[in-house]
Amino acid sequence: xxxxxxxxxxxxxxxxxxxxxxxxxxxxxxxxxxxxxxxxxxxxxxxxxxxxxxxxxxxxxxxxxxxxxxxxxxxxxxxxxxxxxxxxxxxxxxxxxxxxxxxxxxxxxxxxxxxxxxxxxxxxxxxxxxxxxxxxxxxxxxxxxxxxxxxxxxxxxxxxxxxxxxxxxxxxxxxxxxxxxxxxxxxxxxxxxxxxxxxxxxxxxxxxxxxxxxxxxxxxxxxxxxxxxxxxxxxxxxxxx
Length: 241
Hints:
The chain is α+β, with helices and mostly antiparallel strands and about 240 residues long. The chain has two domains: about 1-105, no CATH class; about 130-240, no CATH class. Helix content is about 35%, strand content about 20%. It is built from nine helices and eight strands. The longest helix has 12 residues, at about 20-30.
């Protein structure tokens, strides 16, 4: 299954449901989870959640009716970009409800400085605890100086991360007290990143024994090789290869 690829999300632009919501529902179905509720929300400057009301939706509909084509799609995505799914195990199974939230945000340093709501939300969620992180098909943005705020937040709050080659570079990870375990093979970036990051990642893969990975996780490398990286605290045995 090609899950949440940019090209597939784009193909759903004209559908009745947003692409991220469609793929989230597919994920629930694959894992035999039962949907409890779907709610759209905004983030307040302090990171708290404000759920959209019926009046909010009606006002948005009235505004969207005045737009056409690409402008209508962009306006809809901006208004309904944050969605919460509450779900539970299949009927008859025990266990608490779980929550999945999709948040639409510009993660560049400038955008996060102009609108600190996302970082405030993440701080509330972490609340002094370490979090599990995943980065996948992220256009190598975490390698760039212009995305240092979100990179530093992740490196400062994560217990460990699973990623393709678009996770933290080996030198960013090492400076924050992490080591990286590689799976599959990596030769070169499939598109532009930074030369220093590409060289460091290639040397990291070459320095470790090859560990097989049976499926693609995010991007392949330039010659279509599968790869995966686990970033974990130095000396850690968990998660183990």
